[in-house]
Amino acid sequence: MSPSRPQGGAPGLASLSVTSATPLERTYRPEVQGLRAVAVGLVVLYHFWPNRIPGGFVGVDVFFVISGFLITSHLMKEVVRDGTVSLREFWARRIRRLLPASLLVLAVCAVATYLWVLPTHWAATARQLIASALYVQNWALAADAVDYLALGEAPTIAQHFWSLSVEEQFYVVWPLLLVAGLALARRLRPGADRVRTAAIVIAGVGGASFVTSVWMTAAASAWAYFATPTRIWELALGAGLALVAVRLGRLARIALGWVGIAAIVASALMLDGDSAFPGWVAAFPTLGAAAVIAAGRTQSRLGADRWLSLRPATFVGDISYAVYLWHWPVVVVAPFALARSLGFVDKVVAIGLVTLLSWGTKVWVEDRFRTPRAGQRGVARTYALAAAGMVLVLSLGFALRAQLDARVEAAEAAAASLPAECVGPGALADPEGCGGIMGPGLLLVSPPEAVALQSEDPAYPGCQQDLHGAEVLTCALGSDDPEPDGVVVLVGDSHGTQWFPALDRLGQDENLRIETYTKASCPPSAAARATGVAESEGDLEACREWLGEVRDRVLSSAPDLVLVTAYSSQYEYGVPADDLLGESSAVEQDPAVAGFAQYWRAWLERDVPVATIAAIPRTQGANVPDCLAGHANDFAACATSRLESAAPDPLLAAAEQAGAGVVDLTDHFCDATTCYPVVGNVIVYRDYSHLSHEYATALAPFLGAAIEEWLPSG
Q1: What is the C-alpha to C-alpha distance for residues 380 and 678, in angstroms, rounded to an integer?
Q2: What is the pLDDT of residue 129?
Q3: Which long-range contacts (CB under 8 A, 24 or more apart) does 99-102 make?
Q4: Contacts of 401 by beta carbon, 8 Å cutoff, 6+ apart
Q5: At what angle do helices 58-82 and 30-48 cross, to 10 degrees?
Q6: What is the mean pLDDT of each run of 10 residues along the chain (714 residues)?
Q7: pLDDT of the residue at 27
Q8: Which residues contact 101 (CB under 8 A, 6 or more apart)?
Q9: Which of 4, 288, 607, 701 is most buried by a 10 A CB count?
Q10: Could you tell me where the beta strands, DSSP code E, fall in 448-485?
């Protein structure tokens, strides 16, 4: 008997069975449409008020369960009726249902980005528009999630297409697996039950995905959040419901429905961005969604399904796909268009706009394209129109990037006429002669949109180990002379990487070989450390292993100077770790200072000079190229007072304790009162804390003068 109808029997008794009759008896499920409304409502509220609904992202997981349930119900009707699935027809139905609205929204996103969004966001937006049009957006975000340089990127207008990409990939792979499983079952056991065969396929795929999700969430949670293999089990859970007849008494089904709703709502309120998600934690909202679906229609005023079946809920469910498509572009673009953050009234108006756009899209786009033309020509036309729409969006994405490149080239060509002595930190020495410390007018050696690209396109790729790896990566910069005048080693986190351009230029000018050892979020310290970046115990262990190997390599090579640096104010420090250097960690002092000093002391005791590059001045905390692009007529709005820019720096105290040298270049960022975002027509920072390639290069002679005392003479 179908679970969509009232069940007889005692209220407390239940049974569950896999039956070939179940898929054929599926009818319209208004409570499932209402569940869609709950899912999209949580997502929208989370994106507009993330602090009020910190776990509202679980609405996506509810969608996954619903999609797996509905799509498998449709597939199994065809399997039971015909013995197989017409892949051409199935994919054509999915295209007609999903692509017209999604491609429309992506096209509008491209235009809106050009009209309102800062040019510093164009490169990332163009890349993600292209990935979204090809339905691989989740993999693009997964790649960014493990790329430390991309972690600070602002969300783009098309970022929400990651979940749609997961679903589309499921729609491609799942029917293929189903057809293959049925064919194999017929070959091995002629007459094998088709529904039971499908259940075996679902159990195998879902189980493997769940194990992968738990493992990867613990090992690399940021990657696991977006990757398809860690999410398929959620769709498989819904798929299994399409094959299972759950026989429960009415009271049990009423209770099951409300338990499901409670699990979803509790997940939305209790989880947050720091939760280990998806992993096993995602079982709470997904099992909640499964419980609501399994409860079915109770025909009771007390049932959750009655409330989910009310017209307001089903209306939102009917437009939920369009709401999901439109709400995020409004969230991203509205602050740019209004030139301010959204207040409560703004958000309410924005939600009203999203509702109108979604209703219009449902009526004039989704419904119009959903009904196919009959015959083979109708299927062929569907594929042709889908290809044309995707090409259009791809063209808009490439056009946006081309426009960005043209702007960058024009700005850099115009800046070529600047006098060399007024480019970069030299302007601090002669502000009057250079037309001010920041330089005259708005002429920049590289404009904000070009500098912003440095976060995703590093100048020295492959020279920094990422957050998760332990292998020591090193690059040789500077002079390529086989017998250079000296060897300098740089050890640090990503704030060490920012000095690569300066050291490369210095090495070429002074015939020095520069050897680099840098790893994301891994300062050269023996202290246990923690940071706000998403990381696992495996990441911490990788840092410890990397530090031990780097220590030994530097000891064996005995360079002329070791430069150490880190984003020292970013971390929280525990007592130095015993297993790193084999020394006692019983210290009665600041563990941040002790950790750095202890790690460097291994080199100093072997008479290897060590000097620390003091932390560069802090910014306002915002992305500097974004700030400059948004204040094109007032760069001073992005400056910081010198007092506020000076963060407590344990590197300096550690240098004093260990007997290391100090390289402090603060005076080449700031005058007596102010630290500048632009100095001598050069943007100082490429994001909120790292030096731009251009400014780091311009600092080379000043860095050389600061370390001259430790280098071989003549």
Answers
A1: 56
A2: 97
A3: 99/386, 99/389, 99/390, 100/365, 100/366, 100/368, 100/369, 100/389, 101/321, 101/322, 101/325, 101/361, 101/365, 101/366, 102/132, 102/161, 102/164, 102/325
A4: 122, 123, 126, 127
A5: 150
A6: 32 41 61 97 96 95 96 88 85 94 97 95 94 96 65 78 96 92 81 81 94 91 92 96 84 95 97 91 97 91 94 96 98 94 96 97 93 69 94 97 89 74 87 84 78 85 88 94 93 93 95 95 85 65 92 93 90 67 53 90 93 92 90 90 88 92 95 94 92 94 93 71
A7: 66
A8: 321, 322, 325, 361, 365, 366
A9: 288
A10: 464-465, 476-478
**pLDDT at site 134:** 97
Beta strands at 14-18 and 512-519: parallel, antiparallel or unpaired: unpaired
Q: Cα–Cα distance between 45 and 707 in angstroms, integer? A: 54
Query: What separation in angstroms does the CA of 702 have from each of 444, 502, 562, 609?
Result: 21, 9, 17, 19
Cα(461)–Cα(401) distance, integer angstroms: 21
Task: Give 109's contacts (C-beta < 8 A, 6+ positions apart).
Answer: 125, 129, 157, 158, 329
Q: Which three-class secondary structure string do you get for 32-85?
A: HHHHHHHHHHHHHHHHHCCCCCCCCCHHHHHHHHHHHHHHHHHHHHHHHHHCCC
Longest dimension (CA), the chain: 97
Contact between 297 and 34 under an 8 Å Cβ cutoff? The reply is no
How far is the CA of 568 from the CAs of 41, 516, 562, 622, in angstroms?
41, 18, 17, 18
At residue 678, φ and ψ (nearest 5 deg) are: -130, 130
Query: Helices 537-557 and 591-604, interaxial angle, to 10°?
Result: 30
Whole-Å CA distances, 135 to 167, 177, 470, 666: 9, 20, 32, 46
Task: Answer yes or no: pTM beyond 0.70.
Answer: yes
Domains of the chain: 14-401 (no CATH), 420-457+615-648+667-691 (no CATH), 460-614+651-664 (3.40.50)
